[in-house]
Amino acid sequence: MIFDDERGVELREIFFESAAELLQAMNEGGLELEERPGDTETIRKVRRAVHTLKGDSASCGFKQLSELAHELEDVMTSDNVASIGSALAEVVLAAADTFHTMLAAYREDKQPPPGGALREHIQRVLHKPAAAEKIPNEPLAGRFAWTEYERLMISEAARKGQVIYNVAARLSPDVDMPAPVVQLVRTALQSIGAILAFRPDEAEDISKTRQVEAALSSSQRPEIIQRRCKIPPVIAEVRVERIEAAPTANRDLLDILLESEAAAVASGISLAAVPPHAEPVKAPEVAVERRAAPASPNKESAAENILRVDAARIDNVMNLVGELIIGKSMLSRTILEFEKAHAKDPLRGKFADALAFQARVLNELQKSVMKIRMVPVEQLFRRFPRVVRDVAKERNKDIALEVAGQTTDLDKGILDALAEPLVHLVRNAADHGIETAAERVAAGKPARGTIRLNAFHQGNQVVIEIADDGRGLNRDKIVERAIERGIITQSEAERMNEAEALQLIFKPGLSTADQVTQISGRGVGMDIVQSVIQRLKGTVNIATERGRGTTFHLLMPLTLASIQALMFRVSGRLYAVPLSSVVEIARIQDSEVHFVDDREVLRLRDQLLALVRLERLGGASAPKSKRLFVIVISAGTRKFGLVVDNLIGEEELVMKALDDRFVSSDLVSGASILGDGTVVLILNVAAVVTRLTKAAPLGAIA
Questions:
Q1: Does the pLDDT of residue 450 top 90, yes or no?
Q2: How many CB atoms lie within 10 A of CB 702?
Q3: N or C: which end of the chain has fewer CB within 10 A?
Q4: Is the model more confident about 697 or about 66?
């Protein structure tokens, strides 16, 4: 299917968004069927999701996905579906994974996997023998049963004058693990040409065929291709044939559209055909129009009140509100100047009333737009039951997932960005945090481990908790591994407190896992978790107890659109920090500043704070002053003092992203424009803490 206009692209995104919701419903239904096999209501819910996905994908021209969904629908509508038992849950979850992979390929305009493994799974559930494509003892003769999409690619390559070969390679009889061999053949083919089609898919079982087939576009001679693919001792035989690919004889476009329309009736999607004058190698062009399905009387009013709006349009409105806030600041400054110049003018009061009214309306407008962008974290939490179930099954563990705070709202942009970090933290908790049932019983714990997800508001932030009752983090082991990898020195380790030591797990390449699994343990991922959270202007704290479990607290801003900030000047430059990070402001004498290991520190009551001077970033010496302003900043569990020349005050700032071509420092998270046109840089507090208070003396930082 080709979406070549703005409306088509928008409708394409609607399809993928709807498909994601249907896959989520399939995942949830599969998990419910594991707990309650044969539950008729759950089977009915999954069947509706599969039926809708089948119709929608057919309407969009995604034939392979539609056909697979149709085969799965046969399982869901069979007479003995309720008696299939746990096998039904397995095939539903496997189908959700396969459909997810196919949709990802469609979204990127790539060839989707054929889904042979899912077809075999479906046949096994229906108690039908899976069709064997080839018997290993037969002579090597490739079937090359390419899909219509693959034939179109071959035809297009032939039309461009490329030389195309069909390649078949038979695995040796003594190969016990065929999957790595398949990858070796794929790599060999990629080194000498472009692969237009390939069998089997990575997820497909080749234990029966034990044969690899490919359509290859290459300038190499056939004997070179044959020699490259015959990998001793795992490949027994290779056959290479040059093919002359003629354009695929497509069915009439109207027939295709009529068939898709028939498949789409139940899903509420209609097709409007583009005149059939496309080239033979192109897929039929259609425009998809979403039609509201007839609503039942008790749901009609709710359906009428739901309106889908592209997030970019809301962002545009939010930007305009930001400009209005800047305009309000400009007007406020102008009125102040007017009052100074015309102190007795009666218009002063009218101006002040008009400004107050405008500020009140603008504040309500900003809150309303922000609420539109807010979505409940339930949308994110819904995917984790499947994640925990898969890890528990693979690692032979008994794990329960408890979820709370699903109705807590968060900015959609932040919510989407948090998906990958949260998946990594939950997988780590299930894989390495929770012990096996035997280990838990031996330690006096319940055999079933528990992972808890929670979200709640705390001031102008949202806190997301990921907790487990597993073995906890080993502080000494973390420090030991960090020293081994040269991340810190022994002397630095001795000066670290508990919180600083635990933060080391976010360093790239550091892992305390004794066993590397397919899920985790390579030391890759935790650094990404922290980088994403810092990019979102959030922080992450860790609380752990050996043998009792670990809790990660993710503190995220409600929105990235605007912040309440404290402004100050350093060396004539205007800076700001989020007001939520400010603990207090102190006025101290220069004599109260001391040096420890060539770094400036301040004892403020019972705390020892590291001091940061922004003017030293370029290596310049700080001007001497008898009286200093120190802003005490908190970033997670750490605090430090920011030395500033003078304070400007609090103000609401509209965040503007900075182009990396002009500002490449990670110390600045954004900028804002004041009413008089002055640009204020907003500091990234987390980066300031990690970079400006580490071991090197401040004067050495460039």
A1: yes
A2: 7
A3: C
A4: 66
